[in-house]
């Protein structure tokens, strides 16, 4: 059986979450969605009426919020101060504000501490995010950076949301690009592959193909 830590980083729309969940299930590993934690922090900011661009206000709200996420690959548990926000964190309002909230260093420090504690409790775990291989778990057993061509990512996200109107798909592509640019250019923990990450390009692969590749890499890493 696989024991250790697998990091899965990359931009949005690469199919990262479904790949991470499926790989964790096949490897009998726990699963941690760190994006869900930044999204939950964003719910706390919005509910407090704070401006997501006001770093000091964001830091104050997030320091006081209790953020809980589950680590089972087959169920999604996300709570803010005891309230279930699993559905709300996927909404457009949260998606629009999350990059600004996650660029605040105090927010990152707090959530990274929590991520490391959750990971330490598991013998085997798949952790997905943007900075897991570079910052959160620099000594992970296996690091994967998942990429895909921008058009493929927009198409995939559109299919996920049930959108087919070309104008809406184009708007989605613009939003993906905006979020990736924000995430890649922020000063604290920007999105980039770790020096020792295996780059997996999912443009030409279906989900099963990517999961097979991850599981294969995991089995040969131990
Ligand atoms: O993966 P997901 O799209 O849910 O992530 C939402 C946002 O959370 C990202 O666009 C990024 O701004 C932030 N994030 C981050 N670091 C992580 C995971 C997510 O900054 N490890």
Fill in the keyword field for this structure:
52% helix; Cytidylate kinase; EC 2.7.4.25; 222 residues; binds cytidine-5'-monophosphate; alpha/beta; nucleotide-binding
Please, could you describe this protein's structure?
The strands form 2 sheets. Strands 2-6-1-7-8 form a 5-stranded parallel sheet, with helices on both faces. It has a 3-stranded antiparallel sheet with strand order 3-4-5, with helices on one face. It is built from 9 helices and 8 strands. The protein has 222 residues and is of the alpha/beta class. Bound molecules: cytidine-5'-monophosphate. The site of cytidine-5'-monophosphate (C5P) has 14 residues, from helix 2, helix 4 and helix 8. This is Cytidylate kinase. It is found in: Cytoplasm. One of its GO terms (cellular component) is cytosol.
Secondary-structure blueprint:
Layout: E1 4-9, H1 16-27, E2 30-33, H2 34-47, H3 55-64, E3 67-69, E4 78-80, E5 83-84, H4 92-102, H5 105-120, E6 124-129, H6 132-136, E7 142-147, H7 150-161, H8 166-185, E8 198-201, H9 207-221
Parallel strand pairs: 1-6, 1-7, 2-6, 7-8
Antiparallel strand pairs: 3-4, 4-5
This protein binds cytidine-5'-monophosphate.
